[in-house]
Amino acid sequence: MVVGELTQERDLLIIGGGPAGYTAAIRAAQGGRNVTLIEQAELGGLCLNRGCIPSKVYAHAAEEMLRLPHLEDLGFTAPAVHDFSKLSAYRNRVVQQLRQGVVALCQANQIEHITGAASFLSEDRIGVESGHQFDTYRFQDVIIATGSHSIQHEESCRLNAEQLYQLEQLPESLLIIGSDTLALEAAACFHALGTDVTLFADQLPLEPSLEKELKRTFKKQKIRLVSDVVTRIEASSDATVTVMKNGEEVAYQGAYLFQSLSRIPNSLTLGLERIGVTLAEDGTILVDVNGRTNQPHIYAIGDVTPGPQLAIRAIHEAKRTAAHLSGQDVDPTTPYYPTVLRTFPPIASIGMTEQEAVEAGHAVQSGQFPLNANGATTIEGGSGFVKVIADEQTSLILGIHMIGDDAHRLVGQFTQALELTAKREDLLFPVMAHPSRSEALTESMEALFGQSIHLPPRQQVGSRA
Ligand SMILES: Cc1cc2nc3c(=O)[nH]c(=O)nc-3n(C[C@H](O)[C@H](O)[C@H](O)COP(=O)(O)OP(=O)(O)OC[C@H]3O[C@@H](n4cnc5c(N)ncnc54)[C@H](O)[C@@H]3O)c2cc1C
Ligand SMILES: NC(=O)c1ccc[n+]([C@@H]2O[C@H](COP(=O)([O-])OP(=O)(O)OC[C@H]3O[C@@H](n4cnc5c(N)ncnc54)[C@H](O)[C@@H]3O)[C@@H](O)[C@H]2O)c1
Questions:
Q1: Whose Cα sits closest to atom 35 in ligand 1?
Q2: What spacing in Å lies between the alpha carbon of 183 and ligand 2's midpoint?
Q3: Fewer CB within 10 Å: N-end or C-end of the chain?
Q4: pTM recorded for the entire structure
Q5: Which family, according to UniProt (predicted)?
Q6: How far apart are CA 377 and CA 439, in angstroms?
Q7: Is the ipTM of this complex over 0.85?
């Protein structure tokens, strides 16, 4: 090991170049800080290289594939054969292009990029190990953005979430245990691409009418949904999951098994115990509303801190902490984080369910509009609904839930409505493009009063709880 002789002085150090780290680096550079970004692997982190982006390349391919029968309706002769190796190559090109973009943006913002694994030597000094080289840096401030990792199983048939989207061949069969976004997206996506999928999940953690509709969709698509309790997992050359059904053991076999387990924060190899940074029991780093730990000048953001392990949170926190460290005033409010699921059709859900609204003391009113009564959906195909939940007395919008094509595109509109504390009239008044699926939002609002235009009176789905 070659140890650098002098400790080098730096202004703001950021450890980890995922969506949290590189976003914070760029925003802090915009705010006038001299930024050094330390990444042990590749810029872009889990999200860009092995998570959000690869999984959405697959979701995009699956969505296009599911549209093939509709293309035939439109007179096209649809290609029938899918070459998975071309999809893998496309995934690699997308990831590489986006990663090069991050590298170029860091350069353009004069961010110093160091490759190596960082750990703390003292409250104001870190060491960075890169191959045989070990250099030390003293900092004014540091942001820890080291993310999280999944358990890696020894058996080659047991995959974690990252490995699932790196496969070079489409699995013939796949067993999935879990009911979170990862498990549901993987089940929908691999099934659409041609894998025989069995999903072991009981309750899906969604707004109840979305859960019901997704279960119905899975059934229609012939995704095997097993809700019996898993009693045994065996893995050798392939995987077997055994459940208890009516007092008897039933076994399911698959070429691969993906079990969506809790992710582990990357905090334990940083030497944080040496400098007294407080961790929660699960290893996440405890921070205040600005992302500051119990040590002054040491901040943490993204998956390595408590909260939903989502890139959208990592990005929000990165901007907030970078602004704080650039001397700007920061809004401490926690934003709405929408649930977005790239199932087929996709799901977008934000704010309260009816039950949560009742429990929070609201006089709840809900309205629902089916997409098969929406012109754009009749043209383009598909089904689903938009459901809106409001407070009858104050007319505040409390939640918006959609299953249907374009849900992941319309979710921005829903999020803005909730962030702007919209009232019923705010969503009833604006004119929507025609024909478009946005009109279904207006009609779900009208359904609150039994006034949807495109539904006969007996089908108006509005209720009070
Ligand atoms: C399959 C999958 C799909 C997903 N899809 C979505 C999605 O659609 N939408 C969404 O919002 N979220 C999604 N996520 C979650 C998202 O990927 C994470 O929430 C996000 O990557 C967290 O960002 P981060 O910057 O905190 O951490 P990471 O992206 O994990 O980045 C941390 C970086 O720090 C580096 N690092 C760690 N330790 C050190 C060290 N000691 N020294 C130097 N560098 C270090 C790592 O190499 C890594 O590059 C998905 C996750 C998976 C697995
Ligand atoms: N579209 C999206 O937003 C999107 C897409 C894909 C993935 N993700 C990511 O999915 C991940 C999961 O999120 P989460 O908050 O639901 O995670 P979580 O840690 O709460 O749960 C993950 C899953 O593991 C299961 N589980 C947890 N502990 C277990 C145990 N000991 N034994 C067996 N099963 C266990 C849970 O039932 C659940 O199905 C996050 O990293 C998230 O960012 C998000």
A1: 16
A2: 8
A3: N
A4: 0.93
A5: Belongs to the class-I pyridine nucleotide-disulfide oxidoreductase family.
A6: 10
A7: yes
